[in-house]
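fwd from M.: "can u put these together and see what the complex looks like"

so here's what she sent:
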Amino acid sequence: MTEQVDAGESGVMEQGEQTMNVDEATIKEPSTGSVFASFVRREINTAILTGSFVALALTVFTVIIGITLVGSGFSAGYVTTVIELLTPLQLLVPVVAFVLGFNAILSDRRSGELDVLQTYPVSAWQVVLGVYLGRALGMVIAIGGPLVLLFIPIATTDTPRLPMYASHTGADTPILYLRLIVLTLLFALVMLAVAVALSALVSSARTAVLGVGVGLILILFGLDLALSAGFSIGFISDSRLLSSLALSPVSAFRGLVLELALTVTEGTGPDTASPVASLIGLFVWGGGSLAVAAWALKQ
Amino acid sequence: MEIQRTDERGDEESGDDERMTSTQSEQTGFETAADSTVLRATDIEHSYGQVEVLEGVSLELHEGAVTALIGPNGAGKTTFIRALAGLHTPTAGEISYSGPDRPRQIGYLPQRPAFRPGQTVEQALTFYASLVGLSSEQALSALDTVGLLDAKDRDVDALSGGMKRLVGIAQARIGNPPIVILDEPGSGLDPEMSLHVFQSLNDLAADGTAILLSSHDLALVEETADTVVMLDDGSLLYHGSPSEVIAEANATSLLDVFRESRRAEAGTVSVRGVTDND
């Protein structure tokens, strides 16, 4: 066994061949950005650079490319692709977000690392946002990657673009497809925030599975059904219907795509959503979910 | 839990019997006057629902002293440790920190240390070091103190339970916290490694750190701890230097003290709220 040597004022403790620098002058509270960067690096190492994530990303890629090929193919143009992908993305994005995010906080809670983190000078907000930002990178890769890759064959397929879709005239421009990508990523990040909140609220694998099931049913079907029911019984008036759709993140996403990536192609016809209300709805869902996650961590 | 900070630096001299003794001062070579107090827990009580797990336990941690918490399973050791580490709020009582101002005030080793799989030992410790503004090299120097530097490139999930515990101890030291609290640091380690861990904790204490650990290895506790606190059924049974506790219990070793205290319940585990402890 080693012998203790006086640490001295420098704070360097020597134990035989072992040395531990404990120079207090070098110990400073890091900046908030540095803390976030640490959490993001950790998430990249443990949640993104993994076989599970690669399998998830490949699955999403296969599904998105498969839907396009089974549909009208790359030659159908941007608008047709947007229409063909809209409904599948409404289902696919929440599922991928929950797969990627349901364990984000829960794994640290179960392993005891949340307890250890409490002894470091980091706040619940820093933990939640750091974990979220790291996994958001994975979400962007998993969802945005295939959509961006799909852009290449559509853009390079040398076929005449449809000047019309159904009875509506419009231009088949890549701008509309890019809008779909941006709106899908926004929707994906909001869904990931919901999944992280769920992960912070549950304390066991069993409750997590239950939470994922109930959460997905509510988000994919429950909220839309509630809005439909509210409209049918008159709780939601005609004049408030479009803005009320923003209460459901899926409806908000669908409305934004219809308004900004499809309806604009013909310029007339009925409004399908309130873009402002839909954007506010998504931001409230995202920000509110992260606030819930931080609150859950403090409990 | 927010640990209350005080500026008093323990300026209250206590006449309580449950205080460090002159014997301890001689053992550690440190003054153990009240101004060396870095953490003071007063009348801590904790209940899980109707089950009272801690009943009026008080304790002070002092700079440069190793305090060992012993007692049978279910005595409330982990609950007490978690309260002192600020991980949960006790039902009643007060915990105040009066140590030096550092980014990290308390280092903590959980009973079953674990790390996110998918990262190396170096990555895991570098992450924690970065949270107190330290570099990867400084994280590795903490790993070096537990003799595990050669394993820095190993995946954390490929480590044995004992090695994970050593990495956990290295983690607890990161940031040079004035207090290091360890829940059974010797559990799962072979005798030689267990001895190494206890001696390295003594070395850390000699550098001025207050150490609180729980352990079932009573021989090692007797050999290395400055102060022993024995909990039984959520209450403080003995408190003093190992020799004082042994003398007070009229025993020959801490193991004897433990056996004597458990004689009535030999072979059973006291379950709070179920076992009749009267």
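replying to her w this: The beta strands of chain B are 4-5, 37-48, 51-62, 66-70, 92-97, 106-109, 179-183, 210-214, 227-232, 235-240.
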